[in-house]
């Protein structure tokens, strides 16, 4: 499982790689119940070289970054840093999501962050978001660009999930991959190409029984999509209890035979990826 930084005393610094997309209106992606099958209104993909040269131009914009972070600054913050994208200075990420800050235990696992880029002023951030920040920790970041995150999710590769699912069960994830095998209107797999011997990841979109029925996502073969959702072990009885599956018996039995007790990503949002596939 991922770990909280609340009691963490030492900083952790991993080599980072970043990809960035400008996602206006995507602030609640990890908590949305409705799948998004088109790029959100006003969304623009940002070229990485533009970000490297024009970081200040993104002040006031909502961005989504995917990074293999991180240096922990405080209980509610960490940095991402990569000369290719943001120059030599680290970019501060403030967790304003209202959820505990969870970072991966595995150094190679990405996180996905969505939030507004602004010049960091500790007093303004504390007042606006109800945070208490230690000013001594943020001296170097005052008046520097920072991302005020409204969503932070672990962002492992499909094969990282299928090869070690216990690490991610019950977690909200943001997974990017290529649609490999469309099993039905509500189930498909994400292709795993990064890890030798790893399996593809099954994605299921099903409306919670206690929620509003949602339209099925529209995906196509070989499309690169970003999926937000919660990882669960596939136990048919549990899924029938919690979700309105709408599957016929033959299809349900087929999935049970193939995926029983294996990891399944139960999607809450599906949208075209703004993250370049080679990241």
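^ Assign residues to that structure.
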């Amino acid at each position: 499982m991922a770990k909280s930084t609340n009691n963490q005393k030492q900083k952790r610094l991993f080599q980072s790689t970043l990809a960035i997309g400008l996602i206006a209106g995507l602030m609640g992606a990890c908590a949305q119940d409705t799948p998004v099958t088109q790029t959100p209104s006003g969304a623009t993909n940002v070229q990485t070289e533009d970000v490297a040269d024009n970081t200040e131009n993104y002040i006031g914009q909502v961005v989504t970054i995917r990074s293999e972070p991180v240096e922990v600054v405080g209980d509610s913050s960490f940095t991402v840093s990569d000369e290719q994208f943001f120059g030599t200075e680290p970019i501060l990420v403030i967790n304003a999501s209202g959820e505990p800050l969870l970072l991966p235990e595995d150094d190679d696992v990405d996180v996905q962050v969505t939030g507004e880029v602004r010049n960091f002023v500790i007093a303004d951030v504390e007042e606006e978001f109800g945070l208490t920040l230690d000013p001594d920790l943020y001296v170097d970041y005052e008046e520097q660009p920072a991302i005020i995150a409204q969503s932070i999710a672990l962002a492992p590769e499909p094969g990282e999930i299928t090869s070690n699912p216990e690490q991610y069960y019950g977690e909200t994830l943001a997974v990017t991959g290529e649609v490999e095998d469309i099993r039905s209107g509500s189930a498909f797999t994400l292709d795993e190409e990064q890890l030798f011997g790893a399996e593809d990841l099954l994605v299921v979109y099903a409306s919670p029984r206690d929620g509003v029925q949602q339209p099925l996502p529209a995906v196509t073969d070989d499309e690169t999509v970003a999926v937000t959702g919660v990882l669960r072990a596939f136990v048919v009885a549990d899924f029938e209890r919690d979700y309105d599956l709408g599957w016929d018996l033959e299809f349900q039995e087929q999935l049970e035979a193939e995926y029983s007790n294996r990891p399944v990503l139960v999607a809450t949002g599906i949208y075209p990826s703004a993250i370049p596939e080679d990241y």
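The longest helix spans residues 249-259.
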